Amino acid sequence: MYAQNKHEEKMQEYTGPGLENYLIVLGFLVFLFIAFYFLKKNKHVISKKLNSKKRMVVSEITMLGQGDRALILNLDNKDYLFISGKNSGALLTEIKQSSNIKRNSLEKVFEKRLMNEKE
């Protein structure tokens, strides 16, 4: 009989997780849900802060038709025109700022001359 009581003392019944364990898991899941909601709501603000050191930025995208599109890219403070399509190859051309300035100044010169001729 002494051996039987000793054997019963060694065997403990498994009671399973308690209420405290369920509350901890539930609290963790609620925290994760709130964190994911916050990240989804503010993903643009967060991505801008994380990727503020990007070298390339897409300024504009224009659909040209039949799967063709044109993009204006800014890479290292230079503008590029990128044209691509479904059935055609891609074209990348630098948009030179100095030529635009020259064109604008030439247009101003022509306008001044026209204005002088009208007077």
- Supply Rg: 35 Å
Spatial sequence of strands, sheet with the most strands = 1-2-3-4
Averaged pLDDT: 78
Compute the number of helices: 4
Number of strands: 4
Shape: elongated
Q: Domains counted in the coordinates: how many?
A: 2
Largest sheet: 4 strands, antiparallel
- Helix and strand content put the structural class at alpha+beta
What does this 3D model show about the protein?
With 119 residues, the protein is α+β, with helices and mostly antiparallel strands. It folds into two domains: 13-53; 55-118. It is built from four helices and four strands, in the order H-H-H-E-E-E-E-H. The chain has helices at 2-10, 19-41, 43-50, 97-118, and strands spanning 56-65, 68-75, 78-84, 91-95. The protein has a four-stranded antiparallel beta sheet with strand order 1-2-3-4, with no helix packed on it. A hairpin with a 6-residue loop joins strand 3 (78-84) and strand 4 (91-95). The longest helix has 23 residues, at 19-41. It is elongated and about 105 Å long. The N and C termini lie far apart (129 Å). The mean pLDDT is 78.
Short description:
By secondary structure, the protein is an alpha+beta fold. The chain has four helices and four strands. It folds into two domains: 13-53; 55-118.
Keywords:
2 domains, alpha+beta, 4 helices, four-stranded antiparallel sheet, 119 residues, elongated
Write the layout of secondary structure elements.
Blueprint: H1 2-10, H2 19-41, H3 43-50, E1 56-65, E2 68-75, E3 78-84, E4 91-95, H4 97-118
Antiparallel strand pairs: 1-2, 2-3, 3-4
